[in-house]
Amino acid sequence: FIYRLIKYAGARRVLFLVDRGNLGRQAKKEFDQYVSPVNNFKFGEEYIVQHLASNHLDTTARVCIATIQRMYSMLKGRELAVDDEEQSTAGIDALFKQPEPIDYNPAIPIETFDIIVTDEAHRSIYNLWRQVLEYFDASLIGLTATPNKQTFGFFNQNLVMEYGHEQAVADGVNVNYDVYRIRTEVSEAGAKVEAGYWLEVRDKATRARRDWQLDDDFEYEPAELDRSVQTPDQIRTIARTLRDNWQRDLFPLRSELPKTLVFAKDDNHAEAIVEILRQEFGRGNDFAQKITYRSTGDTPENLIRAFRSSYYPRIAVTVDMIATGTDIKPVEIVVFMRSVKSRSFFEQMKGRGVRIVSDDDLRGVTPGEHAHKDRFVIVDCVGVCERDKTDSRPMDQKKSVPLSALLQAVSLGNVEPEVLSSVALRLSRLEARLSDAERARVRSAAGGIELKELSRGIVQALNPATDRSPQEAESALRQAVKPLANPQLRELLLSLKAQKELVIDIVTQDRLLGAEYSAAARERAQGIVQSFEAFIAEHRDEITALQILYNRPTRAPLSFTDLQALADTLQAPPQLWTESQLWQAYAALDKSSGGNRVRGASQRRILTDLVSLVRYAMHQENELVPYPERVAANFRAWMTQQEAAGKGFTSEQRWWLEKMAEHIASNLGIEAEDFSYAPFDQRGGLGRVHRVFGADLTKVIEDLNRELAA
């Protein structure tokens, strides 16, 4: 739509705003790959697209891609470190009670852009960032997969287009999902370690470990897991369950674990998960990788690229870096080992699995003839799919604001007393727990200033002398927090922040309580099945394909055209059912009841599978079997009958018969003109098959059409 606005609507320049550096690079890649339907030029060949990595704005660019924090800094006339663009802006604006106003900047006139497109509009339109959007005399367009009431309010309820998940699934743009629940004893109830046992205590900053013998019983709740207490056997139990069950329960026909994304609670939790996954799967370090802002070794960007387009890693463990926006189409398993309270954030995280991918692209990273993505699976290890979630924006209360958000707000110019006093208090607490070596590292990163001095300076600036003017007081505050503009110092402080120690419970042995598809998934599947069966019963006399299938004893032939018409009706609103969705629903119910009546759940669906679905729904069949399998079984039975009757076939005749059976499996029947197409044309087509079967050809075709499609 940006291309059309420029080419046909007279838009001179478009600003595309994102809220994280990685999303900007991803957007630039999409622009570069876009090919015009008008002249086959790529976007960048026809128009200049600039991805702002500095404060220099290319006045010849027709599209400028920038993070909202960079554009804010440019309008304020400040430099911005590249590192400050890498973390999401989610909730940062909530820390600004009265954002520092953006004054007119003659270097960037208000008419610079005609159109502003703001991505992730559920979090990029508030308070601090709103000023950027309203500075320019431009039309605003918001993009978000998870709009909330405040999003609608900002855009005056002007919903230009709504495209729901169900419609996207029906259109083949998204895939649906199932929920697989893993419950363990420790995850559900916590644990208790009796006095006398030894536990480990790890320093989060240095990774140093020491032993701790309990004088009293040590008890912890599930909410403390992987925050202040880590239980390796709980992580190991989940990892083993995934290792042992993914093929049996999730993807029976696959020979390789699909690309799997794991959401951890924090960086320490992510490291523990990666280490245990590597041990349990035993496939080397490349098999599982941590992708966070603190990834060691390769850069997060390179790790994301490898996860998206290379064989390894098979499993990526992240906290929130890949939670929103980042597009990794081959992901087919999303594992939640952390809980989420925000509905919007949860929907964004789920969205990492919904994107479709072509079979060729998928098999490029997940080899195997059955590698076809028609769904993904949420593996819920913490009950996140079962909890109510709020629709409010995060971080409305400063007391719960993490130090990382406070420091980022200060770096963006926030000198409000409530924010700075919180920063000073937390830095003071942190300083008291640092070793001499750690204090030296902070002093070096802060340009020779001790952390204690930095904290004291902020407090003194917050209590100015009475003879200071408001302008002088604000200047003093900005001078006091000036060292925090250094992203290296902020990163160091975050790596040393409270709680420095993590208790490692090496005593408790976890126990698996259950691993199965969730009740919600079963209820959803039950609803789909009941609606589908009610639909075909209601319309059995109206839709030609249903009329024929309901009256199969008459042996009236079902045409491919009639079947396609039925499929179109099922996929249209309000049903929005695809063959794959219906098959998965029956498979989920069958598995939850311990049955074995649904086969081929992981195979790619073809249109003729709809015949099997309708017959099964009508209770004409006791098993739900892919239509090609049913045709193949009928073909074997027909061949046995022919041989029993003394009718033998040459090897060439067998080839033709087998290919005719395959054609019937895909097309419901075969006619003389079909021999003009592959694979028949490669063996001489209609002329050759006439010579092979002679006068018997017509009867052979009639027999196969009647017996195989029965």
Please describe the topology of this protein.
Blueprint: H1 2-8, E1 14-18, H2 21-33, H3 43-46, E2 49-51, E3 63-67, H4 68-76, E4 115-118, H5 127-135, E5 139-142, H6 149-154, H7 165-170, E6 176-184, H8 185-189, E7 191-193, E8 198-203, E9 209-213, E10 218-220, E11 229-230, H9 232-250, E12 259-263, H10 267-281, E13 288-290, H11 300-309, E14 315-318, E15 331-336, H12 343-350, H13 359-365, E16 375-380, H14 403-411, H15 417-432, H16 436-445, H17 451-462, H18 470-480, H19 487-496, E17 501-504, E18 512-517, H20 519-538, H21 544-550, H22 560-571, H23 579-592, H24 609-617, H25 627-644, H26 651-667, H27 685-693, H28 697-708
Parallel strand pairs: 1-3, 1-4, 2-3, 4-5, 6-16, 11-17, 12-14, 12-15, 13-14, 15-16
Antiparallel strand pairs: 6-18, 7-10, 8-9, 8-17
Helix pairs in contact: 9-10, 14-15, 14-19, 15-17, 16-19, 17-18, 20-23, 25-26, 26-28
